[in-house]
């Protein structure tokens, strides 16, 4: 499993919006410049965040985006799931694969992969945007 550029950039955008904070809308061109991300690429990431009510935006003069909640109310797992889709480490754990493998009952490795997936989920779910705003690692 590898987190794509899309997921990493989404986290950077969300942290940037959290750091700028407040009620004001932050122009995406400013976020793009601070983060070293092309505005064109950013415009591919924003719709999924907007559609899922992670951010809200306003067009025109004085427009931009802002968070819809407090930074402490966003988990890394939530953001990654939206931008990356299913992060299962093996195909048999993907949500769309329910019952797809007839060997899961006797598979010697299935419990290991299942535990790894749970650990990854719990770890990323325990980290918030507030945590990532700190200069030290979470």
Roughly how much helix do the residues carry, as a percent range? 40-55%
Q: Residue ranges: pLDDT <50 for 5 or more in a row?
A: none
Strand portion: 5-15%
Number of strands: 2
Gyration radius, in Å: 17 Å
Look at the helices and sheets and give the structural class: mainly alpha
Q: Using the coordinates shown, work out and report the CATH topology.
A: Arc Repressor Mutant, subunit A
| DSSP summary: helix tally | 6
* Name given to the CATH homologous superfamily: Winged helix-like DNA-binding domain superfamily/Winged helix DNA-binding domain
Q: Spell the H/E element sequence.
A: HHHEEHHH
Q: Summarize model confidence as the mean pLDDT.
A: 89
Gross CATH architecture = Orthogonal Bundle
The total domain count is 1
Give the C-level CATH assignment.
Mainly Alpha
Shape: elongated
What topology, given as strand order, has the largest sheet?
Answer: 1-2
Most strands sheet: 2 strands, antiparallel
């Amino acid at each position: 499993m590898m987190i794509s550029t899309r997921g990493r950039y989404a986290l950077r955008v969300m942290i940037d919006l959290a750091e700028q904070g407040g009620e004001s809308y932050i122009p995406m061109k400013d976020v793009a410049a601070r983060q070293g991300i092309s505005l064109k690429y950013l415009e591919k990431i924003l719709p999924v965040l907007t559609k899922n009510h992670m951010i809200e935006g306003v067009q025109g003069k004085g427009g931009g985006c802002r968070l819809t909640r407090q930074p402490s109310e966003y988990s890394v797992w939530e953001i990654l799931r939206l931008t990356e889709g299913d992060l299962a480490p093996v195909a048999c754990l993907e949500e769309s694969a329910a019952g797809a493998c007839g060997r899961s009952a006797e598979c010697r490795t299935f419990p290991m992969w299942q535990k790894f997936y749970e650990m990854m989920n719990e770890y990323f779910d325990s980290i918030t945007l507030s945590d990532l705003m700190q200069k030290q690692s979470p």
